[in-house]
């Protein structure tokens, strides 16, 4: 049974200028339980989207339908400037850049209207709305990797402000509000280009975030870093190649067509199949091994003829329907982790990539027998946390 099934209850209470509203508990959220003694953990898979917005490709609305079809909830990382019209661009004051600058531009009124519609529907369907911040600055010249903790706080606060004041900024005051309090909804993020994580995590921790997914890790069970769950991107197989790559469409593309976003058309189908098969192989490695959550990141882009969007849809259709598999948002995964016994999570973390418990899950997660009377219990081995990335 899931808590909050159905539409949110209660009267809509507008917040601020009416851009957002409190509508009750988010619907369609799972009610997690602590693992029972010896119980095999579920296989979690997180599908997430950087810079989520609805444009002429209509990929946001498409993947909402895919999620509903296969019972998958996802995380949509909204770029705040997608709710800021071009005419109001100077309201954005990015760290280490002049006001009104953005490497991903701003939006027009129809784009804002469409994006808000998709955000509203996604949340009502149980999906998470995170943040991908604003201007998406990468590299050494003022990129997010050069930002201080205070500059990150400024960027976060501005991202929140653009969501909380989109009606005032756009003039679209007759539109319905977003059905959530963004100050409470916002629980985590992925930084642009996976840069700047060290200072971002410090800022996010101070601002009450619950997780970060900006690092690089193997397919192992997560630890906490500065009080945040480290739900980093993961290294996954590239079928037919001798290396692994990050579990993200962009990284598969770079390894296939380099910086050309529309490479050799004759290779598009093969490249998409390679990504799909790599992600499914990574899934099987966890599913039949250590059951570590699989983290997958994407962009609403038609790179190489849209082959990566097809690959993601095929992957969702393949993995989300299998037994004991839960395709969830990052926030839902963090909720499950918080509900577990820390000692059990520490033990899960000892399992290596693809490593199933040698004696089976019942034995591995069974409580240790009590020491006989008069015999001191053996001192448990120290479990060292993984080094932060």
Automatic annotation (TrEMBL):
Annotated coiled-coil segments of the chain: none
InterPro entries, sorted: CE4, Glyco_hydro/deAcase_b/a-brl
Gene3D superfamilies the UniProt entry points to: Glycoside hydrolase/deacetylase
GO biological process: carbohydrate metabolic process
SUPFAM superfamilies reported in the protein's UniProt record: Glycoside hydrolase/deacetylase
Entry protein name: Secreted protein
Organism: Streptomyces laurentii
């Amino acid at each position: 049974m899931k808590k909050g099934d159905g539409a949110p209850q209660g009267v809509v209470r507008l917040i601020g200028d009416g851009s957002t509203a409190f509508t009750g508990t988010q619907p369609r959220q799972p009610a997690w339980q602590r693992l029972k003694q010896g119980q095999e953990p579920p296989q979690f898979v997180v599908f997430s989207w950087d810079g989520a917005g609805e444009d002429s490709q209509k990929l946001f609305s498409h993947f909402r339908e895919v999620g509903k079809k296969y019972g998958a909830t996802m995380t949509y990382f909204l770029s705040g400037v997608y709710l800021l019209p071009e005419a109001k661009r100077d309201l954005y004051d990015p760290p280490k850049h002049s006001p009104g600058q953005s490497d991903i531009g701003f939006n027009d009124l129809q784009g804002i209207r469409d994006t808000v519609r998709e955000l509203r529907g996604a949340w009502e369907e149980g999906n998470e709305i995170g943040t991908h911040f604003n201007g998406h600055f990468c590299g050494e010249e003022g990129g997010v990797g050069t930002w201080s903790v205070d500059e990150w706080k400024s960027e976060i606060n501005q991202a929140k402000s653009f969501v909380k004041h989109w009606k005032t900024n756009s003039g679209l005051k007759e539109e319905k509000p977003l059905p959530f309090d963004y100050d409470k909804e916002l629980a985590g993020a992925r930084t642009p280009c996976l840069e700047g994580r060290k200072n971002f995590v410090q800022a996010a921790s101070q601002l009450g975030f619950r997780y970060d997914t900006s690092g690089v890790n193997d397919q192992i069970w997560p630890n906490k870093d500065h009080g945040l769950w480290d739900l980093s991107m993961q290294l996954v197989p590239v079928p037919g190649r001798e290396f692994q790559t990050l579990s993200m469409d962009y990284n598969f593309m770079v390894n296939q067509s380099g910086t050309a976003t529309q490479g050799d058309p004759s290779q598009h189908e093969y490249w998409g199949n390679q990504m799909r098969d790599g992600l499914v192989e990574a899934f099987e490695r966890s599913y039949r091994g250590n059951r570590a959550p699989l983290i997958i990141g994407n962009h609403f882009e038609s790179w190489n003829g849209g082959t990566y969007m097809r690959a993601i849809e095929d992957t969702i259709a393949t993995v989300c329907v299998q037994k004991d598999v839960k395709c969830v948002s990052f926030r839902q995964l963090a909720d499950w982790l918080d509900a577990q016994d820390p000692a059990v999570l520490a033990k899960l973390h000892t399992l290596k990539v693809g490593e199933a418990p040698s004696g089976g899950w019942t034995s591995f997660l069974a409580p240790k027998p009590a020491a006989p009377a008069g015999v001191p219990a053996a001192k448990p081995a120290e479990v060292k946390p993984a080094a932060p990335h």
